[in-house]
Amino acid sequence: MIDLLIDTFIQMLVIINPFSKIVYILDLREDYSKKELLSITLKSNTVAFLILLTFTMIGTWLLRDFFHIELAALKIAGGIIVAKVGYEYAVIELEKKHSIEKMNINEISATPLGIPLIAGPGAITLAITLSYSRGILITAMGAFMAIIVNGLIMAGVVEESSRINKIMIRVLAKIVGIFILALGIQMVLMGVKDFMFEMLYSKTIP
After folding, report:
1. Distance (Å, rounded) from C-alpha 139 to C-alpha 127?
2. What is the 3-state secondary structure (H, E, C) of the chain?
3. How far is residue 44's CA from residue 111's CA, in Å, rounded to a whole number?
4. Contact status, residue 58 vs residue 102, Cβ threshold 8 Å
5. Is residue 20 a contact partner of residue 123, using CB atoms and an 8 Å limit?
6. Sequential pLDDT tens for the chain (206 residues)
7. Would the CA dihedral through 155, 183, 134, 114 be positive or negative?
8. Cα 143 to the chain's mean position, in Å?
């Protein structure tokens, strides 16, 4: 169980990609005070966790019981979405993905920071997929741990923003994007493998 929890935590942390959030926090320094940025960090991560928890809890029911979607199909579709997110981080300039203007603290904490920057399509899809295959408890705990780490990193950036090299952060975000892309491809391959196994297994049963 511990190994499964750690693996879930790592996957959730990678798809959240804290390095990409650092860039946005650094860009917000001109419009918000340190106290406001710390408040934004706390609120945005709280919103993101609530979003991920919601989809973790209802995702399996929604897909398996309501839409009758098999896990193999979800892995393939989810893998494509995760791979797309990784490609965007690795290839597309972060500034072109989202533009953040001066907004109310509560508004900017909810969107775009809470969703889609922290709890984006990739993270939501991964939460649903993991809850389907590993259960709600493990997925929720892994997501919570990932959000805590992401929040601590963002808070650390607020405190030490003057010492952070934005170019290096962009490079790190792109490197993590490559891992996200690989994770998405792996999900697709696992989905195809599960689908082929189900097809072969069904043929052997009269």
Report:
1. 7
2. CHHHHHHHHHHHHHHHCHHHHHHHHHHHHHCCCHHHHHHHHHHHHHHHHHHHHHHHHHHHHHHHHHCCCCHHHHHHHHHHHHHHHHHHHHHCCHHHHCCCCCCCHHHHHHHHHHHHHHCCHHHHHHHHHHHHHHCHHHHHHHHHHHHHHHHHHHHHHHHCHHHCCHHHHHHHHHHHHHHHHHHHHHHHHHHHHHHHHHHHHHHHCC
3. 8
4. no
5. no
6. 899 999 999 999 999 999 888 888 887 887 899 999 999 999 999 999 999 999 999 987 887 788 888 878 888 888 898 888 888 888 875 544 444 556 788 999 998 889 988 998 889 989 998 998 899 999 999 999 999 999 999 999 888 877 777 778 778 888 888 988 998 899 899 889 988 887 877 666 55
7. positive
8. 9
- Per-residue tokens: 92: 């597309």
What's the token pair of residue 151?
Answer: 């929040």
Residue type, 31: D
